[in-house]
Design a protein that fits this description.
Number of strands: 7
Largest sheet: 3 strands, antiparallel
Helix content: 55-70%
Strand order of the largest sheet: 1-6-7
Order of helices and strands: EEHHEEHHEEE
Distance between the termini: 23 Å
Strand content: 5-15%
Number of helices: 4
Radius of gyration: 40 Å
Length: 201
Amino acid sequence: DVTEGEDVRENQPLFRLDDRQLRADLQVRTAELEAAKSELERLQAQPRKEEIPPAEAMVREAQAQVREATARKGQTRNIFERVKQLYNPSKGVQSVTQIEYINAEVDDATADAQLARSEAAVAQAQARLQLLLDGAWEPEMAVARAAVAQAEAQVQKVQTDMDRLVIRSPVNGTVLDRDVHPGEFVGAPPGTTLMVIGDLS
């Protein structure tokens, strides 16, 4: 704060209005900006290195299950083909019972279903791995960048509002009169002069 008789330069701060509310707002807005930046950095850092090996392991495990299901399918198909040759009532061949025939047929169909499920599990594990390797989805990145820009604008707005509470000298001169003091309420009606600055030269 300046005193009467003090020389001031153009744009020099003369006094500041109460900015406690804006300082609190600035802290909130700054925290929001940091959170938005952190979210953007998290998306940019994807994929995390430690997430890739487990996803690759899931693909290998699913592929192993396909191999196992394929071997099982081969076995059940061979058994069913032999049973079909041994059970053909229309040709008078019935070396196995109808129950054995039905069981072999069901086992073959079950092996087909298991193989299909295993192949689907491989496709799903590979898709998850690829999604992980691709990193963050671009629309998510765009939203995160927009959130950072919005938070930066909010911080800038509060800083501008705080700057507007600093009353500055419009010219080079000397403080001739001062009718404002620290702690006073400044709600003067229009036309009331709080400080007079003049060029004594």
